[in-house]
User: What shape does this take?
Amino acid sequence: MKIDQSRLQKEIDSLALITEAEPPVVTRVLFSEADLRGRAFVKNLCREAGLVLREDAVGNIFARWVGLEKNLPPVVTGSHIDAIPNAGKYDGVVGVLGAIEAIRALKKSGFQPKRSIELIVFTAEEPTRFGIGCLGSRLLGGVLSSEKAAQLKDRAGKNLEFWRKRGGCKGKLASVKLPKNFYSAFVELHIEQGPILEREKISIGIVEKIAAPSSLRIYLTGVGGHAGATLMPGRRDAGLAGAEISLAVEHAAKNSGSADTVGTTGIFRIEPGAVNSVPCRAYLEIDLRDTQVKTRDAALKQIEKAARTICKRRGVKLEMERVNVDPPAICDAALVKTISEICRAEKISSKIMISRAYHDSLFMAEVCPTTMIFIPCFKGYSHRPDEFSSPAQIEKGAHILAECLALVASR
Ligand SMILES: [Zn+2]
Assistant: This one.
């Protein structure tokens, strides 16, 4: 079995040119014109590879290589092609285009799968459009209800129904959820998005656990006024309340008692946004994660408590919303072992590790036994245009994925 490294790299480069931004910057927000063109590009490759295509009501794309025993639960792989603003070309894409190449290589080798092998291109792994990540896989795993999903709105107030129509999705959202054990296994190939594999010169990471993400939205309403005429003692500055809350996030993450707690205020907007005007409103989005749910939840409560105290003291009205509070995922020990053994047999170095970023795998773990294959990326950079994995690193990842799919599909 031979992965065609140069064909795969050409396809990665081609997909990177389908972007809302000026290349090399990649931006593909869910169901934007670039995202739709990217989806068409991938569907075309799947068709050329002889895969049977289907799309569900939220736009998850399924491409199946039908196995000899059609009634057995298929083995499935996949990732995403949407990209946050100002991103690079490897996040998600390696797991989609790498999987197509893995399937093509297996087909060319003459392999016949007993179980069907399926690729999923998940809808909106990135939270850019609706503020919630992994929209497609959350619905597949039943972690997000169709009623709640229907209420999602983007910044312009356009709801999921609007965007679903734009994306050409058909059917009811309630039909997206998959029954438990619909698949026999899920394996996602992905760049590490961290520095460990590169630093330790290891080719493959095998994920045993995915950190528990959570996020908060905070709306602050103070009292605006002229920056010259409103004296300091009477001010109810929503911007300053937001600034203090951001510091409280840092404090809670640093003092949680777990070295794995990370807290970030990634969105912070103030209104009216004029140099001579006291901010009357502020909007924050906060991301908080940990490998342990206990310390994560304690830090989350501490942030919420701090926000209440700060706003009370400053006379600022506070509205707080938990967008998601997810548990960590424990990966399937048997799958982790299988991939370790494949790496050993192929004389490719590997390491068992934790994923600190979340992925669609977190929610596919609700459907079937799950793990991930990581490959190194330059300095651990991700979500930025200089994100990079070498063709040789990607080839190794696609190769191990192909071996794993073939093994599980034969069982
Ligand atoms: Zn990703």
